[in-house]
Design goal:
Layout lengths: L3 H8 L1 H43 L5 H22 L1 H24 L10 H34 L1
Helix pairs in contact: 1-2, 2-3, 2-4, 2-5, 4-5
Length: 152
C-alpha cells in the first residue's frame, strides 16, 4: 500500500483523478462565472442606456430602444436557459469539497486518520462527491425541461 507521499508524485491514478476533477470543476465554475457576469453587465448597460435614449432625440431612437429591450430579453433568456449562476455556484462548491478531501487525505486527518486503506476511502469519497454533482446537474436539466414543456 502506498502512503500519501507517493500519491502526490503523480503515479497514483486515484490521486490523479482527484486532481483532474478539481481542475475540471475549477475551470467550469470560472467559465460559468465569467459568462454570467458578462451577460449581466451587458444587460445592465443596455437597461441604463434606454432611459438616456428616451430623453434625447436621435434618428431611429425608438428602433434603438426597442432593440435594446429585445437584447435584454434574449440575454435573460440565455441566463435562464443555461443556468450559468447555478452552475457557477454548484461547480465551485464541488471543487471546494474536492479540495477539502485532498487536504484531509494529505494530512491523514478526518476520516483518513483511522482508515485501513486511505486510498480506497479517497476514491470512494471523490466518486461520491462527483456523483452527487452529476445527479444535481441532471436534476436541474430535468426541471428546466419540464418548465419549458409547461410554458409551451
Amino acid at each position: 500500500m502506498r502512503d500519501t507521499g507517493d500519491a502526490t508524485a503523480g503515479g497514483d491514478p486515484i490521486y490523479a483523478r482527484l486532481e483532474d476533477q478539481i481542475a475540471w470543476y475549477d475551470r467550469k465554475s470560472s467559465a460559468a462565472q465569467r459568462t454570467f457576469k458578462r451577460i449581466k453587465v451587458t444587460e445592465i448597460l443596455a437597461a441604463a442606456v434606454i432611459p438616456f435614449l428616451a430623453g434625447i432625440s436621435l434618428p431611429h431612437d425608438k428602433l434603438i430602444i426597442a432593440g435594446l429591450g429585445v437584447l435584454i430579453t434574449i440575454l435573460e433568456g440565455f441566463l435562464h436557459l443555461n443556468q450559468y449562476q447555478q452552475i457557477w455556484g454548484s461547480y465551485r462548491s464541488t471543487c471546494e469539497a474536492l479540495k477539502h478531501e485532498k487536504y484531509l487525505y494529505l494530512a491523514k486527518a478526518g476520516p483518513y486518520a483511522g482508515s485501513a486503506d486511505p486510498r480506497a476511502l479517497l476514491a470512494e469519497r471523490v466518486e461520491s462527491t462527483v456523483s452527487k454533482e452529476d445527479a444535481r446537474w441532471s436534476s436541474i436539466q430535468q426541471q428546466e425541461g419540464k418548465a419549458a414543456v409547461k410554458e409551451s
